[in-house]
Each structure stands twice: as C-alpha cells, then as structure tokens.
Amino acid sequence: AQKITQTQPGMFVQEKEAVTLDCTYDTSDQSYGLFWYKQPSSGEMIFLIYQGSYDEQNATEGRYSLNFQKARKSANLVISASQLGDSAMYFCAMREGPGGATNKLIFGTGTLLAVQP
Amino acid sequence: SAVISQKPSRDICQRGTSLTIQCQVDSQVTMMFWYRQQPGQSLTLIATANQGSEATYESGFVIDKFPISRPNLTFSTLTVSNMSPEDSSIYLCSALRPVPLNTEAFFGQGTRLTVV
C-alpha cells in the first residue's frame, strides 16, 4: 500500500537560511505524483510544488525546489532564503494511481517549520 | 489554478445536531474529495464525491455519518451527522482537474468545526 513518511515532526531554521524537509514514499505504481503543501495556522492548504514520477528534472517554484530521488523514493522539499512567513506546517502528499484513476492524495504526518529571526 | 469556496469557515455546534459544509469550485473538475484533519493530525480522506452517483467512502467512514452530495461538476456538500465532540476537526474539500491538469490538487479554505 502507498505510504508517505515525514520523519521530522519539527524543524527550526534561521531567517535567510535554506532548509530541507524530508519526505519518503512507498508505492508499487510506476506512475504517481508527489505534492508539497503548506498549512499556516489559519488552516488553509496552500499548494507549493508538484513532481511527476516521470519528470526527469527536479521541480522548482520560486524559492521552493523538490529534490526528487526516485531510486531512493524520496522527495525532499528545499526552501531557500527562509522568511518569517514560511513558519507553518508542511505536508508531503502522493497521488495514488496514474491519471484517470482514483487520484486521491495520501498525506504524510507533516513537519512544523519555525523560522527564527 | 482553480478556486474553491468553502463555507462555513467555522462553526460551533451542539452534540447531536448536524452540519452541512458546502464547496463550490469556479471551474469544472473531475474529482472532488473530502478530508478530515483532527487537531494536531494530518489529513485523512473521508470520501471521494462522485458526480451523479454515491460517494466512495474510505475505511472507517460511513454514509450515514458523513452523507455527501455532488449534483454537478462544480459543487459538493458534506454533512456531519449526529455530531459528538470527537467530530471536532477541520474539514477540507479538495478538487482535481483531469489529466494533464492534475498536477495540483487544490483545497477549500477549510471548515473548523467545534462540537460542544
């Protein structure tokens, strides 16, 4: 069965530094998608970045990049130049099945990031 | 990306009552989902809302407790029935567009429910 593991319950980073949030996954599907979301204290889920299993290049979106290592089944999120507003819970998620199948997301347990001034 | 309007944003309800949460998407989507996030926890999928047919529930969730409707491609409701304090959670709806646009699953703002 598909599974997402985030082993860091909490992380601290200094403002303007880079931080890596870990995510490993387990799936027997050849086609899958990996997502990262940010959830501030307000509770909304903010989409950050997506990586498809067949994408050869690591995804990047502004200060966010995804370090995708398919053989190791890891999809770590890298936030560069951390800002105070980055303090939030971060969830890694995986889309089950190829496009056209169920497409539901399963989520990891999350990492609480605190950016310190 | 598409926008989902979810309401109410929060509510405080008496035990034994029911609450219906609505989600309206600003464009047609293939898949709509309902999640529950208990305090301090991750998101757990309740069900997939299927247009024109009964929802598909995940293990541990039943239709009598969480009836779901999806009358068209842009709208869905989730009812939390006969509530107890254990139902206090954030409830989130989510939508996914068909391939090749399914690279983002977007969420409503969430409904923060407290049952007293």
SSE layout and pairings?
The complex is a heterodimer of chains A (117) and B (116).
Chain A: E1 3-5, E2 10-14, E3 19-21, E4 24-26, E5 33-39, E6 46-52, E7 60-61, E8 64-69, E9 74-79, E10 88-95, E11 105-107, E12 111-116
Chain B: E1 4-7, E2 10-13, E3 19-25, E4 31-37, E5 44-49, E6 56-57, E7 68-72, E8 75-80, E9 89-96, E10 106-107, E11 111-115
Parallel strand pairs in B: 2-11
Antiparallel strand pairs in B: 1-3, 3-8, 4-5, 4-9, 5-6, 7-8, 9-10, 9-11
Could you explain the architecture of this structure?
The complex is a heterodimer of chains A (117) and B (116). The N and C termini of chain A lie far apart (41 Å). Chain A contains no helices and 12 strands. Chain A has strands at residues 3-5, 10-14, 19-21, 24-26, 33-39, 46-52, 60-61, 64-69, 74-79, 88-95, 105-107, 111-116. Chain A is mostly beta strands. In chain A, the strands form 3 sheets. In chain A, strands 2, 5, 6, 10, 11 and 12 form a 6-stranded mixed beta sheet that branches. In chain A, strands 3-9-8-7 form a 4-stranded antiparallel beta sheet, with no helix packed on it. Chain B has 116 residues and is mainly β. In chain B, 0% of the residues lie in helices and 48% in strands. In chain B, strands 2, 4, 5, 6, 9, 10 and 11 form a 7-stranded mixed beta sheet that branches. In chain B, β4 and β5 (44-49) form a beta hairpin. Chain B is globular. The model of chain B has no long low-confidence stretch (mean pLDDT 91). The interface between A and B is medium-sized, with 23 and 27 residues.
